[in-house]
Amino acid sequence: DGGITQSPKYLFRKEGQNVTLSCEQNLNHDAMYWYRQDPGQGLRLIYYSQIVNDFQKGDIAEGYSVSREKKESFPLTVTSAQKNPTAFYLCASLKQAGRAGTDTQYFGPGTRLTVL
Amino acid sequence: GQSLEQPSEVTAVEGAIVQINCTYQTSGFYGLSWYQQHDGGAPTFLSYNALDGLEETGRFSSFLSRSDSYGYLLLQELQMKDSASYFCAVRPPGTYKYIFGTGTRLKVLA
After folding, report:
1. What DSSP character marks residue B104?
2. Predicted confidence (pLDDT) per residue in A10-48, tens digit
3. How far apart are CA A20 and CA A75, in angstroms?
4. Which of A53, A90, A116, B19 could be a cystine partner for A35, CB 3.0 to 4.6 Å?
């Protein structure tokens, strides 16, 4: 089955530690995304990558870093510089539309990060 | 800037019809998407309007009017399982950056 996997599902971190969240897709999509979601809130874009070896900052990139060495993988590192990292993190990939087709994002199940 | 505004919460009863609006301020986009997210889950794709007008998918329909900078999601024959958050989203031309709306929490009452 094609899809997006994220691991781990739950992650606990001590203050001052960096942590890396995994995101893998086998949908053969070029573009991938990382979002942060706080309780009762919407999706905020952290980073996105249009293609391998290229990525762009989203709206809340400070305190986060990414890499895109393979098409299938887009890991997110939450660094100690992120002041309030406790949140739900969602990874997604994009199936692009043609001129009148359907632009669709496919989401992974998410990782819930808690800083202790 | 670019923003998509939605009502924060909508409440309706089972079997009813509900409309969730999305008004936007953006210079342009490929199309308007709608996503559903149940509590604790990931968003899933519902509908997409590349062109103005109505798109129907079963109980769900979505509408777009670029001239009015407005779109909506229409849910018919509401069921309890429709209780979730709903987000509209756009991708401006020439970019892969996605912009999501503020989200609407739908509560379906028995």
Report:
1. E
2. 999 998 899 999 999 999 999 999 999 999 899 999 999
3. 7
4. A90
Query: 């819930």: which residue's tokens?
Result: A112
Q: So what's the pLDDT on residue A73?
A: 98
Residue B2 has pLDDT above 80, yes or no: no
pLDDT tens digits for B75-102? 999 999 999 999 999 988 888 898 999 9
- Contact assignment for B31 to A50 by CB distance below 8 Å: no
Q: Is A46 left (phi over 0), alpha (psi -120 to 50) or beta?
A: alpha
At A18, list the tokens.
Answer: 């960096």
Please determine, for residue A99, whether its predicted confidence score (pLDDT) is greater than 60. no
User: Residues of B near A (CB-CB distance < 8 A)?
Assistant: 30-31, 33, 35, 41-45, 48, 50-51, 87, 89, 91, 96-103, 105
- B100 has which bridge partners? B89
Give the separation between CA A99 and CA A109, rounded to whole angstroms.
Answer: 29
Instruction: Tell me how close the Cα of B18 comes to any Cα of chain A, in angstroms.
Output: 20
* pLDDT bucket at A83, cuts 50 / 70 / 90: confident
- Token pair belonging to B61: 């329909």
Which residues on neighbouring strands pair with residue B60, listed in sequence order? B57, B75
Of B42, B45, B103, the CB nearest to A104: B45
Question: Are the CB atoms for B39 and B105 separated by under 8 Å?
Answer: no
